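Query structure, 348 tokens:
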């Protein structure tokens, strides 16, 4: 074999290897990259400015918060809803926090549902407690969308929490038959999109939702001053003193913040999870320095009307000691106030 021929064989061999490597790399890119790219397009706002003007006409600006929806969130959402996200709904997604000057008004998030006419894209406006504010359809090929999904549906869904939407969705699931009309199917997709939007926002952007709730509560009760919050902690001894076997509070969930204005303590914020029988939730309380309850808000939602009314009735009362409490809700308030009062700052 001549030297020239050997060189040619060498060049051909390496050219084939290089070509094969390029093909493999291209296949990897084709298989993997579109998943993220499609996920971003699958649930995104087509025109954020238009969406903000429609859903929050009083908004002055917005902030985008990009996060990745992964398997852990997908599993939590599946447990929350009873059905799960399509794999195309995973990946990086954007939540829009909407502001009027310094006040957070709510959130905008888009979700996409499949229909017999193709993909239907919903843009949702959520309140601070993640109940529905407004929605509109970004894209829908069905002629029924413009005809039936407008102000009437907004009025029906406005203010609805996840539990209320899930109840309607369960009824819709039970009514699913082969004879369902196209309008029935679109109505079901609307409810499913609303439920997914709320659950996804809670599980993926929960930390931001809680922080914005804190800011909203403080701005409402201390509108003309600059406040800052600093987390405080209980010593092990104090924590043991406050533990109660009959409490509805989940003790290791209690998180306390001291609120300051110009380094002077003015209030306490306390966040905690609770459970009473089959009912459970998470709430945040705001106390002033004299133990007056200024506000109590759910994180996510109240899932029981009676419990909601009982806690809301405590606002405005002072619960410095358990002897001053008139009912179980006020005892919970006093318990949380004691957590806040005894917690100490690690670095003042």
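Result returned for the query:
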């Amino acid at each position: 074999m001549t030297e020239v021929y050997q060189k040619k064989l060498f060049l051909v061999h390496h050219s084939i290897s290089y070509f094969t490597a390029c093909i493999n790399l291209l296949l990897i890119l084709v298989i993997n990259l579109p998943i993220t790219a499609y996920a971003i397009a699958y649930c995104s706002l087509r025109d954020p400015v238009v969406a903000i003007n429609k859903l929050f006409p009083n908004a002055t600006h917005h902030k985008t918060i990009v996060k990745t929806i992964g398997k852990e969130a997908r599993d939590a959402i599946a447990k929350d809803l009873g059905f799960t996200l399509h794999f195309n709904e995973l990946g990086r997604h954007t939540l829009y926090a909407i502001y009027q000057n310094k006040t957070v008004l709510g959130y905008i998030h888009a979700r996409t549902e499949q229909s017999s006419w193709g993909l239907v894209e919903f843009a949702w406006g959520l309140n601070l407690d993640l109940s529905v504010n407004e929605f509109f359809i970004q894209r829908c090929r069905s002629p029924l969308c413009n005809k039936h999904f407008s102000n009437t549906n907004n009025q029906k869904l406005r203010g609805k929490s996840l539990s209320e939407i899930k109840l309607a969705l369960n009824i819709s699931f039970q009514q699913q038959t082969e004879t369902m009309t196209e309008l029935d199917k679109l109505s079901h997709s609307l409810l499913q999109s609303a439920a997914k939007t709320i659950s996804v926002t809670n599980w993926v952007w929960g930390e931001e939702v809680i922080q914005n709730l804190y800011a909203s509560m403080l701005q409402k009760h201390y509108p003309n001053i600059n406040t800052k919050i600093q987390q405080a902690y209980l010593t092990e001894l104090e924590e043991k003193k406050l533990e109660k076997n009959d409490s509805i509070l989940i003790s290791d969930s209690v998180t306390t913040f001291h609120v300051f204005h110009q380094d002077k303590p003015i209030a306490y914020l306390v966040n905690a999870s609770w459970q009473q029988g089959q009912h459970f939730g998470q709430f945040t309380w705001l106390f002033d320095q004299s133990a007056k309850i200024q506000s109590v808000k759910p994180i996510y939602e109240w899932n029981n009307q009676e419990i909601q009314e009982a806690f809301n009735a405590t606002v405005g009362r002072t619960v410095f000691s358990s002897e001053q409490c008139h009912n179980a809700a006020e005892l919970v308030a006093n318990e949380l106030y004691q957590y806040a009062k005894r917690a100490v700052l690690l670095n003042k």
